[in-house]
Recover the amino acids of this structure.
């Protein structure tokens, strides 16, 4: 099973230091972009091979971005790559998670490691959805839990650093089967439920970010169940917005972005807003987009399109100051 995952980008009012790209056929990308808070910059130099659905997180303990896995032209990857702000370096850990796409990953401030959960593990068939938890300490991977019974198998979940802990939301056993709309926190030994019903409808590849201003988790879109197709389908793109605070979910109003599946997000510290960007828009003929929308706590507004070209399945993470790194993805259309 190959899945189409969320793309990630940044604010649309950006400029970019890059010459016009050469003509290329749609497909996997291997370009790297950095966001400095005011503009996107295309980074030069060699790095990971083209891929989508890799996991990316910023490790402030070692001042590096950590990229793991993803789907390449040769199959799923078990590679770990490090970005130091200037260049990519391939890590050579003694241990590593099995090759997979669409795991969730974020930095754990309490334990000072990067936590990875689940994903679709490559095998001789369509893949097996994992329920394992791993930690990266800057040099090597360690198995923290072989299987989480409370969360179960999940691909396409989203994980964020939320104050002093990490929170995981959503995901599913498959892309149109066993989808979840619940949230969990990691305590270093086990995952614990942190929300109560009613919850958002199950989905994978949602846009998720932590709002530090009011300690809430914000969720937009993603792909939900499509009862008219099989379990291997991508599911229906969603257009709903939710907030989790104090264990309770609230659906947020206001007309905003169109139904967008496999979408991602950032939190923009100034002026303090939730940004939704990239992904695959629509359900009839889904196409990559680089549209950017902002939620200010009361209403949506559409910003200028992002400087990086349209894509889905890109890896995106932010550092502690709000700067960001964007890598790869795919711009292949859905029809």
């Amino acid at each position: 099973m190959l899945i189409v995952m969320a793309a990630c980008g940044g604010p649309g009012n950006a400029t970019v230091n890059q010459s016009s790209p050469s003509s290329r056929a749609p497909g996997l990308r291997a370009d790297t972009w950095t966001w400095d808070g005011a503009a996107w910059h295309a980074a030069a130099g060699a790095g990971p091979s083209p891929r989508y659905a890799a996991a990316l997180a910023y490790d402030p303990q070692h001042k590096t971005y950590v990229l793991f896995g993803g789907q390449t032209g040769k199959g799923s990857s078990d590679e770990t790559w490090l970005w130091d702000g200037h260049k990519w370096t391939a890590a050579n850990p003694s241990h590593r998670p099995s090759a997979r796409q669409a795991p969730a990953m974020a930095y754990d401030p309490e334990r000072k490691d990067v936590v990875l959960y689940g994903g679709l593990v490559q095998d001789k068939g369509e893949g097996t959805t994992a329920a394992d938890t791993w930690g990266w300490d800057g040099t090597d991977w360690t198995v923290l839990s072989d299987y989480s019974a409370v969360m179960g198998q999940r691909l396409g979940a989203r994980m964020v650093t939320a104050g002093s802990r990490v929170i995981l939301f959503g995901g599913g056993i498959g892309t149109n089967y066993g989808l979840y709309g619940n949230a969990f926190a990691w305590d270093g030994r086990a995952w614990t439920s942190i929300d109560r019903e009613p919850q958002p409808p199950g989905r994978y590849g949602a846009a998720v970010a932590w709002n530090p201003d009011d300690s809430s988790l914000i969720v937009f879109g993603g792909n939900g169940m499509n009862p008219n197709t099989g379990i291997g389908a991508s599911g229906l793109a969603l257009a709903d917005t939710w907030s989790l605070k104090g264990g309770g979910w609230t659906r947020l109003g206001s007309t905003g972005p169109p139904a967008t599946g496999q979408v991602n997000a950032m939190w923009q510290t100034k002026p303090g807003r939730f940004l939704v960007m990239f992904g695959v828009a629509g359900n009839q003929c889904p196409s990559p987009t680089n549209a950017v929308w902002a939620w200010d706590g009361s209403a949506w507004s559409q910003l200028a399109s992002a400087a990086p070209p349209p894509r889905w399945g890109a890896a995106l993470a932010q550092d502690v100051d709000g700067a960001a790194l964007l890598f790869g993805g795919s711009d292949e259309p859905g029809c």
